[in-house]
């Protein structure tokens, strides 16, 4: 199911076309629900947690002279493990609770770079393409700029656009976030890369949902 409706997509496409009419730069937008399932990462974390809990229980039982039969103890650990893995499988969003934020951001950043390359944003003639990327599950946004832009525009200048995307995503107002980000990105690109007499549109003007 799409996060945005047809009207949202149409408005974003129009905003990209309008911004690109005043710059030789190219703007591409991608919205991802999640950058990974995190099933295996969460499964590893849960397994370690269960093993640590089993050791604590075993030590407590020994300390209080409480006898637990080894087969029963082993079955309890196995049941806990099977239940945890089943829950992670049936409730995908649950995995995010067991993944460190650093890993979430790393996976989202990797997805942003992959989208930048997959969508051929790096193949514009003057290397002036940028990718506006949001990954909802990780609450992560990034602006990936090509070499031609990085030579003139510092990453710090994109921070305001990232803030716009993340703030609106937190409010579930994704369309407005992209519209404002596109407008601001267009103004920034126009300053450094104004449109020339032959302003060719090299990338599709629309938002991609993953």
Structural class determined from secondary elements = alpha/beta
Proportion in β-strands: 5-15%
Strand order of the largest sheet: 3-2-1-4
Task: Return the string of H and E elements.
Answer: HEHHHEEHHHE
CATH class descriptor of the largest domain: Alpha Beta
What is the domain total for the residues?
A: 2
CATH architecture of the largest domain: Roll
- Strand segment count: 4
**CATH fold name of the largest domain, please?**
Diaminopimelate Epimerase, Chain A, domain 1
| Average pLDDT figure | 87
Number of helices: 7
> N- to C-terminal separation?
10 Å
Percent of residues in helices comes to: 40-55%
Poorly predicted sequence stretches spanning 5 or more consecutive residues: none
Which radius of gyration do the C-alpha atoms yield? 24 Å
Biggest sheet: strands, sense, closure? 4 strands, mixed
Q: Please state the overall shape, judged from the principal axes of the Cα atoms.
A: elongated
Provide the fold topology.
Layout: H1 6-20, E1 26-32, H2 39-63, H3 70-90, H4 101-118, E2 129-135, E3 140-145, H5 147-150, H6 159-170, H7 174-192, E4 207-209
Parallel strand pairs: 1-2, 1-4
Antiparallel strand pairs: 2-3
Helix pairs in contact: 1-7, 2-3, 6-7
